[in-house]
Amino acid sequence: DQLHRRYKRTRDIDDWRAFKNAQRSFKSTLKAAEKQHVRIEVNLHKDNSRSLCKVANDFNQFFQSVGKRAAETAEMLALRNNLNISTELEPQNRRSELFSTELFKFTPVTCTEVPTHNNNNAVE
Q: Are residues 20 and 34 part of one domain?
């Protein structure tokens, strides 16, 4: 927050880089914590397929709602601050109309897929 405010005040490229680096670091830490949490939950229920299925359904619902809320919040903040949100593949002058489908792609898994993913170490 402070780094972003500093960049908005100065518009200095070094302040922007500091903000982006901090943002990447935060996302990386969050992703690692998320993986660890998933691994712990799956390992706790690995011998009980009913519980494992419930865990998979809970994760599906949670991550679907998180992606949608994050996309909506990103659009609202961008509009409020006159910012252009684009993916790396989009030209900078094109405003994205479908934030939730373009920026967040989530594929839910079924209960039968969970043991397969777990055996293939997909949760590591």
A: yes
Question: H or E element: which one contains 99?
Answer: helix 99-103
Q: How many angstroms separate the CA atoms of 17 and 104, rounded?
A: 24
Domain count, the chain: 2
Residue partners of 74: CB distance under 8 A and separation at least 6: 85, 99, 103
Give the pTM: 0.45
* DSSP category for residue 85: -
Residue 64: domain span: 48-87+99-114
| Whether the Cβ atoms of residue 106 and residue 63 lie closer than 8 Å to each other | yes
Amino acid at 38: V
Q: How far apart are CA 61 and CA 90, in angstroms?
A: 29
Label residue 122 by pLDDT band (50, 70, 90): very low
Same domain, 32 and 18: yes
Note whether 55 and 41 are same-domain residues: no
Residue type, 87: T
The residue with tokens 């900078």 is: 92
